[in-house]
Write a structure and sequence with these properties.
By secondary structure, the chain is α/β, with parallel strands linked by helices. The protein has 23 helices and 9 strands.
Length: 543
């Protein structure tokens, strides 16, 4: 019925799919007509999703600040489409509104797209007060608001605001996004200096995005950029050592790894003179700190391990597959890997392998510097700790007990697990920005709230996403495909999910490594790792 109403209105010209060029004034008459239809359909939770989506799209080019705020009020319930809130006992909460159909996530994505593409810079700038209002607006909504301001790249006041937010902002999430927004403005006065100075910021996420900005600005003064990156490498800790070495390789076409002294020696030889380089310390500061987890070398100190606990993970591993796994995971005697060998007598299923591999990796991580938590997923999501805990003996033993207590459940909620990981990261980053106003300038000293925020995910799964907002069972996918290609429908959903992960990770800056065992969605796991600077390890692949 709703679809017919929309089609009739379109035919009459009462629901115009307006695309207004940037800087164009909003057609107030079209705005009023289209919003009346859009609002009525969004309020009707029984309206079909395609009609609601068309009505939202019809607001393209017609958003001012007032209507953007009205539209964003519907974002959260559409984003949580198909998710039923549960109490501590796992039962649906009483009094909760019936969730929208799971396809309504498309409406949530479209709402953010419209806000990001607002073409009236003066209207977008009205978001300034909302961007730092954590209590009222979720992070992804605030990101879209800042994108709306930054998107008006030829508007002087908009770019001035983004630059001031990157330089002086007290909300780390928004500072990180502001730095990203400055990447197309490397020639602007002050941007290069800001990037260089921010290599010493207290926030590792700001330092991470500053590395990208220094590389983009390097054409202004390549020697200065290289020297700044080498200096930072000589004192940096954790995963950013690898990012710095990659940045240096990109600027110099040299591959000297994470050894700051090797880079210093190379630069001296190349330039025939010292130019403010740090004193030589001897040896690769990072060589002894690389860790091996599921075949991936990592410098991280802050991990989220995400483990699939669906029923397929508890099925006995066939003998031929087990032998293949042994060959892959049994270390070479000359390998510097410090982990103890796997005890294959304890491994009967893929869940056994995942937890024993995880436990032996945790056992050798530095308890003074390394922090972690674990998320398991099947039909539902479970978290070992809602904060990152030190990797000391007591916590490792407790985590091992928790892992060995996992029982396989029926389905595989891939999207829910990664959503939970990003939710945790965003919550841990959500420190009151007022507490950071007196932050110390200059070289990193003391703890910044980001030191408690994860920087690396290891994601372990054996299958496809079969439940939750992202993915679905065979029957659900057939219904959604409506007679079409089920595989193509699944790929389309997971493509949308990858877009959402990419959007969230603009601020989180998390490296994602993936491990697939047996029958696995190699396309998704491979792309997830590649898109986020990680490694994909396929084990015992079953076609």
């Amino acid at each position: 019925m709703c679809a017919k109403i929309c089609q009739t209105l379109l035919a009459l010209g009462l629901l115009a799919l307006c695309v207004v060029p940037a800087q164009a004034k909003i057609d107030k008459a079209a705005q009023a007509r289209n919003w009346a239809v859009c609002e009525r359909l969004l309020k009707d939770t029984k309206a079909d999703v395609p009609s609601q989506l068309d009505a939202v799209k019809a607001m393209s080019g017609l958003l001012d600040y007032e209507h953007a705020i009205k539209l964003l009020a519907y974002w959260q319930e559409c984003d949580k489409a198909g998710i039923v809130e549960k109490d501590a006992k796992g039962n649906p909460k009483k009094g909760e509104k019936e969730p929208r159909p799971k396809e309504a996530y498309k409406i949530a994505m479209q709402i953010l797209t419209l806000v990001k593409n607002m073409g009236e810079p003066e209207e977008a700038l009205k978001f300034k007060a909302d961007i730092t209002n954590r209590k009222q607006w979720p992070l992804r909504v605030r990101m879209a608001m800042l994108d709306a301001i930054a998107g008006n790249s030829d508007h002087e006041e908009s770019i001035k605001y983004v630059l001031s937010l990157a330089r002086e902002g007290t909300d780390t999430d928004m500072r990180v996004l502001a730095f990203t927004a400055l990447l197309p403005h490397t020639q602007r006065e002050g941007v290069f200096d800001l990037a260089l100075n921010s290599l010493n910021d207290k926030s590792w996420r700001v330092r991470d995005v500053a590395i990208d900005l220094v590389v983009e600005c390097a054409s202004m003064d390549k020697d200065r950029a290289i020297l700044a990156l080498i200096n930072r490498l000589s004192v940096e800790e954790g995963k950013l050592r690898l990012n710095l070495s990659k940045a240096l390789k990109k600027l110099t076409n040299q591959d000297l790894g994470t050894d700051a002294d090797a880079w210093i020696d190379w630069y001296k030889e190349a330039k025939r003179a010292e130019q403010g380089l740090p004193p030589k310390k001897g040896g690769d500061k990072g060589a002894t700190r690389a860790r091996r987890i599921f075949g991936a070398d990592t410098f991280s100190d802050r991990y989220i391990f995400v483990i699939d606990a669906s029923v397929s993970m508890t099925e006995k591993i066939p003998p031929e597959e087990l032998e293949q796994l042994k060959k892959t995971l049994t270390k070479d005697p000359n390998d510097p890997d410090k982990r103890r060998p796997l005890d294959w007598s304890k491994i009967n299923c893929k869940l056994d392998l995942a937890r024993e591999e995880m436990i032996r990796s945790l056992e050798v991580l530095d308890p003074k510097q390394t922090h972690f938590t674990i998320i398991s997923f099947a039909d539902d999501i479970a978290t070992w700790s809602d904060e990152l805990k030190p990797c000391d003996k007591a916590n490792v033993e407790d985590a091992a007990k928790w892992l060995r207590g996992l029982k396989g459940a029926r389905k595989t909620n891939v999207g829910g697990a990664l959503d939970a990981a990003f939710d945790l990261s965003e919550r841990l980053a959500g420190i009151d920005p007022e507490k950071l106003k007196k932050k110390e300038k200059g070289v990193v000293t003391g703890k910044h709230p980001d030191e408690f925020v994860p920087d690396t995910i290891f994601f372990y799964s054996d299958g496809y996403s079969t439940t939750g907002k992202w993915g679905g069972s065979s029957d659900e996918l057939k219904k959604m495909a409506n007679g079409g290609d089920v595989a193509a429908m699944y790929r389309s959903i997971m493509t949308d999910f990858l877009k959402e992960v990419a959007d969230r990770n603009r601020v989180a800056r998390i490296t994602i490594n993936t491990v697939g065992v047996g029958r696995q969605d190699g396309w998704f796991l491979g792309k997830l790792a590649k898109d986020h600077g990680g490694t994909y390890l396929p084990l015992a692949v079953v076609k």
